[in-house]
Protein: tRNA N6-adenosine threonylcarbamoyltransferase
Organism: Halomonas piscis
Amino acid sequence: MRVLGIETSCDETGVAVYDTAPGGGLLADALYSQVAMHAEYGGVVPELASRDHTRKLLPLVEQVLADADMARGELDGIAYTAGPGLVGALMVGAATAHGMARALNIPVLGVHHMEGHLLAPMLEDEAPAFPFVALLVSGGHTQLVAVKGLGEYRLLGESVDDAAGEAFDKTAKMLRLPYPGGPHVAKLAKQGDPGRFRFPRPMTDRPGLDFSFSGLKTHTLTAIRKLDDAGELTSRGRADIARAFEDAVVDTMVIKCRRALDDTGLKRLVVAGGVSANVRLREGLDQACAKRRAGVFYPRGRFCTDNGAMIAYVGARRLETGERDVTGQMQATPRWPLEQLSAPDYAGTK
Ligand code: ATP
Ligand code: MG
Ligand code: FE
């Protein structure tokens, strides 16, 4: 089954074709990032995001079909991100997907953006087998999830305030780095002295798998102000702060992942979402998992952040079981907890 995937939940227009047939896999994918446009405002402007998706989506669909050497009529299904995300942005993908599916007379399905992130490592040659623990770390989410199978998700813990990516972005802003800040903070941290500051590892001194990053953000702001007052907010000082911040986030996530593996007794860890691109986070988790003889799995760099490939993959896995949207009922759900998902009804599998 060849499925077109469409991602428009935020500031990336992503399109891909995934083929479930043996020897198939990802046939083509393309991404248009709006980051440069939003950078001017220091964050995503929802109305501009929707408008840009309308401009870029159909040309990207044409490009991906050409790259896959396919005609539209050769598609067997369409999947789109139905939520969570910005409602106007979601509606562009949903309306396009439903319109195309109606014209081509093929099934269409709205999928969950975080299920896309969660299963993005399935696109790699060394894909994880179920069950596993997943750490989802993105711009809007920080969650630990026990994953039994497709659609079988049990939330183990999550951030009670800011998401990890959001904390990176806010720290970048405080350090006057461009948006989105994660990669910039990571780059600056490389030049920092790890011994100069020690920031707190929030919520690691008590049991449980929840996270909190807003206190760390305040701590970072206070440290920046102190340096500034002392006339020491030099490039060296800023790098030392970036390093202390990154160390604190990485350490916190490593501690919680170790705990989640111990609590569940599972031997595989999947890490996905934009922050999973962070090199020092990967180093920390690789080490922790090696010690426990647990396997650790990540998406390739460009599939850590938003992309169409992960949506095509999840859509294909669900569409092939017979799951689909009711004809003419497009979905755009800005808030949608991952635990509300369920496994597809495999009885429908042909
Ligand atoms: P969500 O998926 O929760 O709706 P989103 O789609 O905006 O949010 P993603 O696209 O998965 O999030 O990830 C973007 C986030 O990842 C941003 O906050 C960005 O700063 C962060 N990020 C990207 N690369 C890195 C990196 N190398 N280190 C730290 N953070 C990073
Ligand atoms: Mg983005
Ligand atoms: Fe995302």
Q: What stands out?
A: The mean pLDDT is 97. The first helix runs from residue 35 to 39. The radius of gyration is 21 Å.
